[in-house]
Amino acid sequence: MLTQYGFILILSIFAFALPTAAVMMGWFLGPRRPDAVKTATYESGVETIGDTWVQFRAQYYLIGLIFLIFDVEVIFLFPIALAYKHLSLFSVVSTITFVVILLLGLLLEWRKGALEWS
Questions:
Q1: Looking at the predicted structure, is the pLDDT value of residue 52 above 70?
Q2: Three-state SS string across the chain, please?
Q3: What is the pLDDT of residue 2?
Q4: Where are the domains of the chain?
């Protein structure tokens, strides 16, 4: 049992050490030649015109968050759909409960007007 945790510890050390070493090597060995073009502020390669501090409505972030939640829901439901023939009754009931909870959340957001695009 301890050897299994030791293996996980070794993999965790490698997972932390290798990217850290790569970033540190790039930082120490990389060239540093800043100039006006490299330090200029730009948006998608285009010079900004006017004030760059523009306020966005919080509703855009809410719609993005709702999209992300339902996107992750599909990731959870995909393996269940693949193994549907082999699922037990408990698995089917828990999946239906999961979908009902998500639909109730969607209905709540719809009722509150979070999905209205204005």
A1: no
A2: CHHHHHHHHHHHHHHHHHHHHHHHHHHHHCCCCCCCCCCCCEECCEECCCCCCCCCCHHHHHHHHHHHHHHHHHHHHHHHHHCHHHCCHHHHHHHHHHHHHHHHHHHHHHHHCCCCCC
A3: 67
A4: 1-30, 56-118
